[in-house]
Amino acid sequence: MGEAVPESVSRRISALRWPACLVPVLAHAAQSFAFVGDYPKTAEWLVPLMDSPYLWTDAFIYSLLGIGVVPMFFLFSGYLHFACPRSYSEVLRRRVPRIFVPMVLWTAIFCAFALAVIPLFGLCSGYDFLFSSDPKRWFTCLVGDYSHPFTAGLCCPTVYQFWYLRDLIVLMLIGPLVNWWLRRAPIVYFALVCASAFGDWRPLLVGTTALMFYSLGAFCGLRKVDFFALADRYCPWPLLALALVVQIVVMRHLGTSLTLNPMVGCFTSILFFLKASALLVANERRFAVLRRLDRQSFFLYCCHGGTVGNVMFMLTAFVLPYDRPWMAAVGAFVIFALNAGLCTGVGLALERWCPRLFARLTGGRG
């Protein structure tokens, strides 16, 4: 990382990336069960948390911990982009291609896999909504149709999973505008960002959560604020535990559709990971392993989603009785272990035996 980033911050970001990527992998594995069997096929399945062990499992993984992982990566990106400033021409020449090229390559790989390889083995029988061949749906998901992809019939996970990269590219392109506002009128700027978040406005195809946490990271980068140190000092573990309990109570009695609840959950989840990072870097041997796996975090993010996870769900369905709620909870962890292990193993093999290909697929992160 750049010279402007303190070593302590650099170490903790590196230690967090791969473990944090595991949480969405587990959350996506758990969510696979929302669309099959006797489970409801709408977003309402998130609300009745007491119905089964599976719903409890998914609610804890996604709504308590996983909800803040992607916002945390936007926080890190904003911090690194503004703590290590580059000219706008360099951003267009180097930073944007490092994200755009892998996004195009991975989209092409998944499209070919979903539309050519899977039908040969008949794996998509009964799962047509996961492997749509309608070009309009693929394009709509890619450019950012923010209507719910499942309820709107736009379920194309092989493209939709890269919304994070799409938003990050847009945020880098509007970086000079963000920089101008943060330097001259940060209070007004964050008031507008908060209004857009709670009003659910989505300017420039960018999600409101992405804009908020990228802006927070940019502010910290410009002002040299160490958010890890702030979390260590002002967020003791008992307070975080209490916040998690409150989240469970709120979701149990009020549901998860409230605008305030997801935003509070994001901050709680992020604080949890910021605090936990101190434990990850406390042991040098552990940190050495995590620093090596840090290079696999982007590969794991790209590889695990959409087609790969869904195929693993279909294959394990031949063995595990997913019609039982308790087995669905177990199956989520089985699919997670297979998915994370396979993707990380393939990434490590490519990094060692095909470093140039690995570099292309990860934007030179090998």
List keywords for this structure.
366 residues; mainly alpha
Please give a structural write-up:
Helices cover 72% and strands 0% of the residues. It is built from 18 helices and no strands. Helix 2 crosses helix 17 and helix 11 packs across helix 13. The radius of gyration is 20 Å and the shape is globular. About 11% of the residues have low confidence.
Determine Rg (CA atoms, Å).
Answer: 20 Å
Shape: globular
Task: Count helical runs.
Answer: 18
Describe the largest sheet. none
Low-pLDDT windows of residues: 35-50, 124-130, 146-157, 256-260
Order of helices and strands: HHHHHHHHHHHHHHHHHH
Please bin the fraction of helical residues. over 70%
Strand content: under 5%
Strand runs, count = 0
Cα end-to-end separation: 14 Å
**Overall average residue pLDDT:** 77
Structural class: mainly alpha
